[in-house]
């Protein structure tokens, strides 16, 4: 294991253990931007633990994080870390197991390693040196080629004033593919795409780097395709995120663009 992958894994495991200690324990919930954007003390405590673990080995590196006073943007030069102490906090506060603690290591804005730990599911996803792993086993995206057998996931979140786009993207999925799922944690959804459990993960909104960088890296390392809404190679600052097993990616893109068509019609 590379040094940065080892650090990302140790930090994610440490933060995940802190979060797990408060899981299903009646923790107080606060709201941020809207009623579905929630945060808990467990998020803050887990992030502090992740940061402390990283700082033991990389004291000078930039850290980008969802909570508290960390940076919000990924530096385009030099090394940095991107952390999400609990991706899927809505699941966490409802006692559902689909949440992760995710840590990505980047250099010049590109992911070089990362880990998404799912303590309540007892699964650990690791990105290291161009390979994707779950619990030590190498991952590969689904080899399904028939869109009527695909399962596609609409991900991230559309605010209340953009729910027409959410509805449009769901319609685009169900009209083109066999089935649809939504798990409430983008990092987990992308990891599941890398593992071959679903064939695609789509959104037309800009994904925060802490919600997406590890997962997008896992999909690519597992042999999949990740683009922005226009079909260009995805970056942490792209608009939209469309990940697939690489089969019928244009059709997966078309489903995501249903939301764009709705947005354009309402402008």
CATH architecture of the largest domain: 2-Layer Sandwich
Our count of helices gives 7
Strand order of the largest sheet: 3-4-5-6-7-8-9
**Class per helix and strand makeup:** alpha+beta
The top level CATH class name of the largest domain:
Alpha Beta
Radius of gyration: 17 Å
Helix content: 25-40%
Condensed summary:
With 267 residues, this protein is an alpha+beta fold. 36% of the residues lie in helices and 24% in strands. A hairpin with a 6-residue loop joins β1 and β2.
Question: How would you describe this protein?
Answer:
The protein is of the alpha+beta class. The chain has seven helices and 14 strands. It has helices at 3-22, 41-57, 89-93, 163-176, 186-194, 209-221, 249-266, and strands at 29-31, 38-40, 62-65, 79-87, 100-107, 110-118, 123-128, 131-134, 137-138, 151-154, 179-180, 200-203, 225-227, 241-244. Strands 3-4-5-6-7-8-9 form a seven-stranded mixed sheet, sandwiched between helices. It has a five-stranded mixed sheet with strand order 11-10-12-14-13, sandwiched between helices. It has a two-stranded antiparallel ribbon with strand order 1-2. α4 runs antiparallel to α7. The radius of gyration is 17 Å and the shape is globular. The mean pLDDT is 93.
């Amino acid at each position: 294991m590379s040094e940065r992958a080892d650090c990302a894994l140790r930090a994610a495991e440490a933060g995940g253990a802190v979060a797990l200690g408060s899981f299903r324990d009646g923790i107080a919930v606060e709201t941020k931007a809207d009623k579905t954007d929630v945060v808990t003390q467990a998020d803050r405590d887990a992030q502090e633990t992740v940061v402390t673990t990283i700082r033991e080995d990389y004291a000078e590196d930039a850290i980008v994080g969802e909570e508290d006073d960390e940076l919000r943007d990924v530096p385009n030069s030099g090394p940095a870390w991107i952390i999400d102490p609990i991706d899927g906090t809505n699941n966490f506060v409802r006692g559902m197991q689909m949440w992760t603690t995710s840590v990505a290591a980047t250099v010049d804005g590109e992911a070089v390693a990362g880990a998404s730990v799912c303590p309540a599911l007892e699964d650990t996803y690791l990105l290291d040196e161009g390979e994707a792993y779950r619990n030590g086993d190498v991952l590969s995206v689904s080899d399904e080629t028939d869109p009527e057998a695909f399962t596609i996931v609409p991900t991230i979140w559309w605010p209340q004033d953009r729910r027409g786009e959410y509805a449009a993207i769901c319609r685009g999925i169900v009209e083109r593919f066999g089935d649809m799922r939504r798990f409430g944690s983008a990092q987990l959804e992308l990891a599941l795409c890398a593992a071959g459990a679903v064939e695609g993960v789509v959104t037309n909104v800009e994904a925060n780097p802490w919600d997406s960088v590890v997962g997008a890296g896992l999909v690519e390392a597992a042999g999949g395709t990740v683009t922005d809404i226009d079909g260009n190679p995805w970056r942490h600052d792209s608009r939209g995120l469309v990940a697939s097993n690489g089969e019928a990616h244009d059709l997966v893109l078309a489903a995501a663009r249903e939301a764009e068509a709705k947005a354009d019609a309402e402008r």
